[in-house]
Amino acid sequence: MTGWDISGLRAALADEVDGEVRFDAGSRGAYVTDGSNYRQVPIGVVVPRTVEAGARAVSVCARFDVPVLSRGGGTSLAGQTTNTAVVIDWTKYCDGLLSVDPEARTCVVEPGIVLDELNRRLSPHKLQFGPKPSTHSHCALGGMIGNNSCGASAQAYGKTVDNVRRLEILTYDGQRAWVGPTPPDERARIAEGGGRLAEIYAGLDRIATEYLADIRRGYPKIPRRVSGYNLDSLLPESGFDVARALVGSEGTLVTVLRAELDLVSVPSYQSLLVLGYEDICAAADDVSHLLEHCSPSQLEALDGRMAQLMREEGAYLQSLDILPRGDSWLMVQYSGDSQEDVDEQAHALLRAVGRGEKDPEVAFSDDPEREQRMLKAREAGLGVTARPPDDRETWEGWEDSAVPPERLGDYLRDLKALFEEFGYDHPSLYGHFGQGCVHTRIPFGLKTAEGVAGFRRFVERAADLVASYGGSLSGEHGDGQSRGELLTRMFGERLVSAFGEMKALFDPGNRMNPGKIVDPNPVDGQLRLGPSWRPETPATHFQFPEDDHSFNRAVMRCVGIGNCRSHSGGVMCPSYRATREEEHSTRGRARLLFEMLGGHADSAVKDGWRSPEVRDALDLCLACKGCRSDCPTGVDMATLKAEFLSHHYEGRLRPAAHYAMGWLPVWARLSRLSPGLVNTLLHAPGLARAGKRLAGVDGVRPAPVFARQSFVQWWRARGGEEPDPADPRTVVLWPDTFSTYFHPSIAISAVRVLEDAGFRVAVPTEPVCCGLTWISTGQLSVAEKVLRRTLGVLRPYLEAGTPVIGLEPSCTAVFRADAPELLPADQDVQRLAKQFRTFAEQLVHHAPDDWRPPSLARHATVQTHCHQHAVMKFDADRELMRRAHLDADVLDEGCCGLAGNFGFERGHHEVSMAVAEQGVLPAVRAAAPGSLVLADGFSCRTQIEDGGTGRRALHLAEALALALDGNLPSDAPERLAQRPPEPSRTARWATTASAAALAAAAGTGVALRLRRRT
């Protein structure tokens, strides 16, 4: 950054740009890389509130002569969206759909709009944007235009370049214009106007004329040529289309401010044909044969290696089970106006190639849900292959080459031979085979000088190979830094010189995303790892057994895919969905943790575990564990956060909430001395607010009410003989803090249902705890002690193999996931992890065959706890509800937002409620009055009750226990469940008055004593 007036730049941007201007270490660390192998620390980040503000930011940067990088979803795999530049992130605010013309089938959008969101807004018109990359849930249209994105649907609709009508662009030196197809008369009009725009058009005309023969001869005639600038769009036969010439230029030429897009109709019907082959090369050989007989909307490939990885990871098993016989597969999808049409297209292909629907190598489906599951399995390729179960680290770098489809099989054989020559074992090969595009990830050795040298030699050889087949270095992901240096091997010196002339025409000072495509940085430069990467290797509390016992490897699970930036579906990432901040996504936090490790001298994040930037980014992490299951590579940010907090506050005073909420099990036990008095104090006017302030609890959040009689007290009073741990009918009901001290009716209900099913219930009456609240606040040494004490109490049951039944999902998740990672060498921890079951798992899989749950016979709105979603899954609960004749609408609306201590902590209430309002609370409000609202998690129930829904959620155990008593009322059935009542208004005010009187008396006494002394 030498020579740039950074402080002046920062001040000017803050003064002149309507947006968020960030030059802090945290923001720079979060944007330091994308989905590629490359890493460059940004100068700063600007998040414009309007397109005009974004244009103004470019103008300010030009005044200070600093580089600019436009960024959308930041998922680029070739290094296009990492640079030492001012990063303009368009996605938070500039996401408008400005107009739609249903008749012309066009729309105008701002650059930050996400593809799935665009298509959702277009759905009333039954229109969509055709190209659909696998990142469709979070990729922005500006990024798709910059990258010339494709996806599987490009088989039918082409690349992004084929679907762009016009662009509003801004050059670094301030020229702004709408560009598109430009016939000669329009070019003449522009020339007459003079100025910078006329200069640009004249220069483009000259390049197109001078290099016309080279372009026609040197550009591969294949469906997936994405490498290089689109000079072929300037040819006469292409209508001198300047907009399309700029698509795929990766922000190196202009800033795209708005785009007019062509749209396509949403298919009414679809069918899917899956064909099995002996290997992936045989499948590739058959592609051109199939295309002679059909025009599919998608033609995708999946090899046996990827299927093996999915099975080892337990992912997409339903889809794998319906694959036909074979070790590689082609998925052929058809679209049409009727079911008969799409079915006939599939059967016609089978007849043409001499196969039948009943053949073992054939599978046919016209079930849309089933088809989407199959295609999602193919979409998951990047995540599945990024962190294989065999712990090899695989990388992009040669992940999207493309060749003519008719030559694909031979190309794959040569590519596999190259893998073998370089000792790269057998990477998975898959992709968009209908257009000759191949995806893979390769185990390059990017941490050593020898490995990096091998990486360079390989990509050079691979570039020569694909060029010899008349192919493209990139068939989808662009050039960036991965392939910029290799372009001469594909296009030759003259065409690459033409690229340079085009760059100089638009950006003579080389300030637009420099070092990409033209005058590129070396393919082995600026690596995120590299031979000079020397991270700290800290000792940790969690042992990370799935990550080679390394915190660093756990952090490096994140490869930048960006699914944590999706706007709906699943759980991950609730804080990002609420704030739309990169730092508040799983990926952004992982980037900051990576920078914290100190492997690079230029990192903006200093101070290691004491880093305030990492602390601040993790502060809004709800520790929901959604990323553990929803992230394609299984990043577990909740665990990483707990580990960080344990070191960050080691030997230091912690936030008050860590003592108040982190030690909740202790305070709950102490509440037994006088639960009524405790409740009154917690709800007394004035006193409650003062107490919350001292405890670090948000003043708006009501305190939960302690039960007058805890579950364990009820159990002791009930009496009865303790069952033999070795009795196969014995189960231990886990007395978690929440079901014991706040909602004991849940545990009491569980006892009733379990006994009705023929089980003999035991309950530990000595204090036990899973340590959840200490884990979530990073007090891991205490959590370990708590867990060891608990293991001692449970030892007779552990030795007998007695099942332990959990009612609170977060506590169950501790024993199934967190405890084995904290204490992996402790055999009792391993035993308990295997013996700990959910309430539904016990009843569905282990109840006597002749037992049936009581019938509820009504509709239910069901919120799954995030930890259950991530760790235990919900299959058993669905089955138990089915058997109980519950018509269950299991919400796919994400986290409830309370998330244990998170929603109670001061400063979190706004985000907590924003998360809840994105889906859970509206869904509950919309539930019919006579339906049940079910939520097994204490946090979920509390959020639903506190969130103004007018409803109270029940645990499934409560609903089943109520059904044992007969029919439920037709309206608000939850009113039958018992909950501790709040203290009366009289008691609350009396307590406040008593406290005030005591304070006044004390003050008077002190005043009298002081008067006597004077």
Protein architecture, described:
The chain is of the alpha/beta class. It is about 45% helix and about 10% strand. Strands 5-6-10-8-9 form a five-stranded antiparallel beta sheet. The chain has a four-stranded mixed beta sheet with strand order 1-2-4-3, covered by helices on one side. Strands 13-14-12-15 form a four-stranded antiparallel beta sheet, sandwiched between helices. Helix 1 (about 5-15) packs antiparallel against helix 3 (about 50-65), helix 11 packs antiparallel against helix 17 and helix 31 (about 710-720) crosses helix 33. It starts with 5 loop residues before the first helix and ends with a helix.
Ranges with pLDDT <50 over ≥5 residues? none
Mean pLDDT across all residues, rounded? Answer: 95
- Largest sheet geometry: 5 strands, antiparallel
> Roughly what fraction of the amino acids lie in strands?
5-15%
Strand order in the largest sheet? 5-6-10-8-9
Structural class: alpha/beta
Shape estimate: globular
Distance from N terminus to C terminus (CA atoms, Å) equals 67 Å
Return Rg in Å: 31 Å
Count every beta strand, where a strand is a DSSP E run of 2 or more residues: 24
Quaternary form: single chain
> Helix count, per DSSP?
45
Helix content: 40-55%
Summarize the structure.
This protein is of the alpha/beta class and 1014 residues long. 43% of the residues lie in helices and 11% in strands. It contains 45 helices and 24 strands.
